[in-house]
Every structure is written in structure tokens, then in C-alpha cells.
Write a structure and sequence with these properties.
The chain is an alpha/beta fold and 354 residues long. The chain has 13 helices and 8 strands.
């Protein structure tokens, strides 16, 4: 197949009632694992790279790794998405290197740590939408600030996230404001704040409605039934991976992630994109710890990384199957960026509120 935009992918997911796990890529092994899982489940693929991942891997290497995935798996529709773009320039550089979708996170200012004002978010996001849609590229926006409803504290993962405390209403996306935001910006997908956060330490206990506000998602969906919603910080932080890490030299305190059944609940209320990064990191790092502890004389990098790849494949297969995207790849007929640009220009893809 070919590259696919986020909008086309999520339109298909919405039409058929499934969700798309969006896997963050950190290195070659994580990319290979995600692609192998997609191939085994005949799933479309949503690959993400953050600004820090781009710096770590270097844009040139990352670009050719992504293109290698497209070439290696020509039968799978693949979306390349920039995660948490902080300003127009960052998003434009991603477009120029071949990303078919970008996120403009205007919930924070360009420093990626200071909560922004609403008008700033609208203006910055709309400017990215104007440039991207002219090229046929999709845009994800964010309204509300990710952080803990338990403590009111922000989370800072890989240089992204606010420091300090915010009031509860700032940590939840307002449904009425969401309607205005989508209308003014024209985003293709909306990341919402509902109590999730990046990293492993999301909740101190299994989350319920007090600290994971799934009802906010349902209220937003009721007002914006045609808008694709996004859950950030949606890794499950599985107990077996915590145990794996701690059994082999790690020191992770007990923590809880987002239960898969809550994500499945969200999918029924318009959540079409579910961001997953921490689970992959835990599977890789825990497997490396286990191998090195059991093979103390080994210095074979390939042998050290191989068990982690297997665990990541299994984890991604589970997510593809639980979220319903397994078996959907062959049903999607990719449109070119030129075709998407024509649809944006014609107003065919403009989202409407209820």
C-alpha cells in the first residue's frame, strides 16, 4: 500500500467502530516489533515519533527507518505521526521529512512546560491546520492539560509536561469549549484531558471515576459525535512487566496504568487513537534486565534485544486485537496527500458538532 493520513485512518476506524493504538517508536527494534505485530494481525499501523525521539534518532535516520517500514510492508496502510509538536516550525519540519500527520499541542506554550491560554492554543493550532491541510496532511490538537487528578500535579516525560499544580478544571477538557475549539481550528482529531498522564506513574491505585474521568470523554462525544478523540498517556503499565523489571534488579514502586477495559469503553464513545509508549519501554527494558542477569557473560547486543522484541510484538498484538483494528488493513484504500488536500479545499472533511 502506501502512507495514509491520520484523518483517513480514523475516519475508517470511526465508520467501523474500532480504535487505533498509536505506538511511539524509540529505535529500530521498537519499529520492527510494531510492524511485525501489525503484519501478524493484518492491522493498519499508526507510528509516532516525539520531538525527543527525533533528536535521539536523528531526523535523517528516522525518515529512512519509516520509509523502510513502508517498503518492507507494502500491504499495510501506515500513518506517520508527529507526537506533541510544540510550534509551527516543528510541525513543518515533520511534514517536510514525510510525516503524513502532525500533532500541534497548543495546550502548552512552545517551551512544552507552561500551560497556555485558550486563545493561544486556538491560534497556534489553526495556523498548523492551515499549512498542513493545504498539503493533505492531518492535524491532531489538544485541549486541556495532561496531569494527575489525584494530586493536581503535572507530569514531565521526555521534556514535555508542566511543572507544579493546576486546578482540577484545568486538568479536564470542557465539552463546550471543545466544540468551539474544533470549530475554530478544524483539527482532524482532538486529544482530551481526562486524568491520564505520560509515563508509568499515572495512578497510585486502580483508577475509578474520581481519577480517570471517562465520563468527560462521553460528554465530549455527545457534543462532537463526528470528531475523533484521542487518549494520551494510555499505557496499561501491566503488573507482569512491573514484576519483570523488579525481579531483575529494578526498583519500580507499585503503580497503575489505564485498564484496557476503560479504553474499550472510550472506543465506544469516539476514542479512535490511543497513545502507547511506556508499555513498550517496560517490555524492552525488563527483557534486557532479565537476559543480562541470566547471561552475565554475554555482550551480544542482538541477543540482549531479541527477547524484548518478542515481548513488544506480543503486547502490540494484544492491543491490536483488543482495540478492534486487527483484520482492518486490507479494507482501507489509501488516498494520496493530493487527494486529501483536494477534499480539505472542498470542505468535505470539515467536522461538524451535534
Amino acid at each position: 500500500m502506501a502512507l495514509i493520513t491520520l484523518r483517513q485512518l480514523l475516519d475508517h476506524a470511526g465508520e467501523h467502530g474500532y480504535g487505533m493504538p498509536a505506538f511511539n517508536i524509540t529505535n529500530l527494534e521498537t519499529l520492527q516489533s510494531v510492524m511485525e505485530a501489525a503484519d501478524k494481525t493484518n492491522s493498519p499501523v499508526l507510528l509516532q515519533a516525539s520531538r525527543t525521539a527525533r533528536i535521539y534518532m536523528d531526523d535523517i535516520f528516522l525518515k529512512h527507518m519509516f520509509m523502510a517500514a513502508v517498503e518492507r510492508y507494502p500491504h499495510l496502510p501506515i500513518c506517520l505521526h508527529l507526537d506533541h509538536g510544540n510550534e509551527l516550525g516543528t510541525c513543518m519540519s515533520a511534514m517536510e521529512m514525510g510525516f503524513s500527520s502532525v500533532m500541534m499541542d497548543g495546550s502548552l506554550e512552545a517551551d512544552a512546560k507552561t500551560p497556555s491560554e485558550y486563545d493561544y492554543n486556538v491560534s497556534e493550532t489553526a495556523s498548523v491546520v492551515e499549512v498542513a491541510h493545504a498539503r493533505g496532511i492531518s492535524v491532531e490538537g489538544e485541549l486541556g492539560v495532561l496531569g494527575s487528578l489525584e494530586t493536581g500535579m503535572g507530569e514531565k516525560e521526555d521534556g514535555h509536561g508542566f511543572d507544579g499544580m493546576l486546578e482540577r478544571n484545568k486538568l479536564l477538557t470542557d465539552p463546550t469549549e471543545a466544540m468551539d475549539f474544533v470549530a475554530q481550528t478544524g483539527v482532524d482529531a482532538l486529544a482530551v484531558a481526562c486524568g491520564t498522564s505520560h509515563g508509568a506513574y499515572k495512578f497510585s491505585r486502580r483508577p475509578n471515576g474520581d481519577i480517570l474521568a471517562m465520563d468527560v470523554i462521553e460528554k465530549i462525544h455527545a457534543k462532537l459525535p463526528d470528531t475523533h478523540l484521542v487518549m494520551h498517556g494510555a499505557s496499561g503499565v501491566p503488573q507482569y512487566l512491573q514484576d519483570l523489571i523488579n525481579a531483575h534488579g529494578g526498583d519500580m514502586p507499585q503503580t497503575f496504568g489505564v485498564p484496557l477495559e476503560e479504553i474499550e469503553r472510550g472506543i465506544k464513545s469516539g476514542v479512535r487513537k490511543i497513545n502507547i509508549d511506556t508499555d513498550i519501554r517496560m517490555a524492552m527494558s525488563g527483557s534486557m534486565r532479565e537476559f543480562l542477569q541470566e547471561n552475565r557473560s554475554s555482550f551480544d547486543i542482538r541477543a540482549i534485544l531479541k527477547p524484548g522484541r518478542k515481548r513488544v510484538v506480543d503486547l502490540c498484538i494484544e492491543r491490536n486485537e483488543r482495540f478492534g483494528c486487527a483484520g482492518q488493513a486490507e479494507k482501507i484504500k489509501p488516498l494520496s496527500l493530493t487527494q486529501m488536500a483536494e477534499r480539505y479545499t472542498a470542505g468535505i472533511l470539515r467536522t461538524k458538532a451535534a
